[in-house]
Design a protein that fits this description.
- This protein has 451 residues and is of the alpha+beta class.
- It folds into 3 domains: 154 residues, Beta-Lactamase, CATH 3.30.450; 76 residues; 144 residues, Heat Shock Protein 90 (2-Layer Sandwich), CATH 3.30.565.10.
- The protein is 48% helix and 19% strand.
- A 5-stranded antiparallel β-sheet has the order 4-3-7-6-5, covered by helices on one side.
- A hairpin with a 5-residue loop joins strand 1 and strand 2.
- It is rod-shaped and about 155 Å long.
């Protein structure tokens, strides 16, 4: 089962929240346990100091037990608070009444001034918190005697506190998880609403109810919706170009087909040359219309093409074709310049312009290319090809861009190639200009917008 984006984000956020609160709960639980154990130790330490203050030794070093102990629980059996005193031979010299029938864990006697707090088990398996302290008692300047005082308490009260804290902790953390999940659900649904709106508008475009995405979207989605709109526009232009090309092809073929049909139906013999003229015309029409249809035009999703590399490839190829003409080519191209379009379209444009320049130049061709910013997203390209040939008459500059028109001057033969270039440039929404003066050569300037 494939989860929706909303479900995935909610699941990820839920897992992260649960893990975070779980770790937080574990840390708080450990911190409370350590705090509770510290409280138990401080309590036992206070009891130990009370016993040390109450006890004394006689002149022979014997322990003197007070009649009244500082804590009444020492006198009650099974009170949960126990005490014991060992001498230097680890023999019990005193034990509290509460310890009747019980025993404290047997451990090596501590040195004087040394203390040890631990949670240990007796021989009967009963758990106790114990605090032991080694004492060295001075006997009126006649020496000293060593004892070990031990205080123990059962962990019932400690465990009750820890259990109560855990119960409250996980109750509130569980409630926090529920609240966080509800808040995350609301926030995610609100945050992802623009994506749902984009999906709804795309579906409306597919159904033909909308022509483009028209909603107001956050900055993070504006680039996506802009590219989707550009993609829709470009695809519609491409389909429109296909329809126009097919319509133009059908219309253009009607006349030569009618001529051939009339010639075949004529009672008098028909010269083959007359049919061949119409066939050549039809071939020219088909070739031209196929070139128009093949122009990819402006594309949103396309890899950029290196302009310097493309110009170099075309120039090298034309040098082989026009090997007998010693043409000097000057390439004034911005390094790293990119063309955001179809590579074949760029080759077609460069091939036609440079081929004409090679044919009619007087030994020098200049290719200039630079970026232009007609959009804040991607740069366009301004491309110019100039030669120092005889040029095109002013009256023919517009005519040579039409299909099949050929100037009768020295620049004859530029009609079909420039018309094809014009169609490609128009497919990209660009502009083509011809600057020509008799005796001063020809310069063709093209601007390709990007965006």
């Amino acid at each position: 089962m494939i989860l929706s984006l909303n479900s995935r984000l909610l699941l990820a956020a839920s897992v992260a929240s649960i893990v975070f609160l779980g770790v937080t709960g574990w840390v708080l639980d450990r911190a409370f346990q350590n705090s509770a154990e510290t409280a138990v130790r401080n309590h036992l330490q206070g009891q130990l100091y009370g016993l040390l203050a109450a006890f004394d030794v006689d002149g022979r070093g014997r322990l003197l037990v007070p009649k009244n102990l500082p804590e009444s629980r020492f006198t009650r059996i099974n009170s949960g608070l126990y005490a014991r005193v060992l001498d230097r031979e680890s023999k019990v010299v005193w034990r509290s009444d509460s310890l009747v029938g019980r025993s404290l864990p047997d451990r090596a006697m501590l040195a004087s001034g040394e203390s040890l707090f631990e949670r240990d088990k007796t021989r009967d398996g009963e758990e106790l918190f114990t605090l032991r302290f080694g004492v060295l008692w001075e006997i009126n300047g006649q020496g000293s005697v060593a004892y070990e005082f031990a205080i123990a308490e059962d962990p019932t009260n400690y465990e009750s506190q820890v259990e109560g804290f855990r119960r409250d902790l996980w109750f509130w953390l569980g409630g926090a998880v529920v609240v966080m999940l509800l808040v995350q659900t609301v926030v995610l649904r609100w945050s992802l609403r623009p994506l749902r709106e984009v999906a709804e508008e795309v579906a409306a475009v597919e159904r033909g109810e909308l022509s483009q995405l028209a909603g107001e979207y956050p900055r993070e989605l504006s680039g996506l919706t802009r590219n989707i709109n550009a993609f829709i526009t470009n695809e519609r232009r491409q389909m429109e170009r296909y329809r126009n090309t097919l319509g133009g092809l059908a219309h253009s073929l009607k006349t030569p087909l009618a001529v051939i049909q009339g010639a075949m139906e004529a009672k008098q013999p028909v010269e083959p040359s007359e049919v061949l003229v119409q066939v050549d015309r039809m071939a020219e029409i088909v070739d031209y219309q196929l070139r128009r249809a093949a122009a990819a035009g402006k594309r949103t999703l396309t890899a950029p093409v290196s302009v310097p590399d493309s110009v170099t490839k075309v120039v090298n190829s034309l040098r082989k074709v026009h090997v007998n003409r010693n043409v000097q080519v000057v390439q004034d191209i911005r390094p790293g310049l990119k063309f955001y379009g179809d590579e074949e379209d760029l080759f077609e444009v460069l091939g036609n312009l440079l081929d004409n320049a090679f044919k009619w130049s007087d030994g020098r061709v200049v290719v200039h290319a630079e970026p232009i910013m007609v959009s804040k997203h991607r740069p366009g390209v301004r491309l110019s090809v100039a030669d120092n040939g005889p040029g095109i008459e002013d009256s023919l500059r517009e005519q040579v861009l039409k299909r099949g028109v050929r100037s009768d001057g020295p620049a004859a033969g530029q009609g079909l190639g420039l018309a094809s270039v014009q169609d490609i440039v128009a497919a990209y929404g660009g502009e083509l200009q011809i600057t020509a003066r008799n005796g001063h050569g020809t310069e063709v300037v093209i601007e390709f917008p990007a965006g």
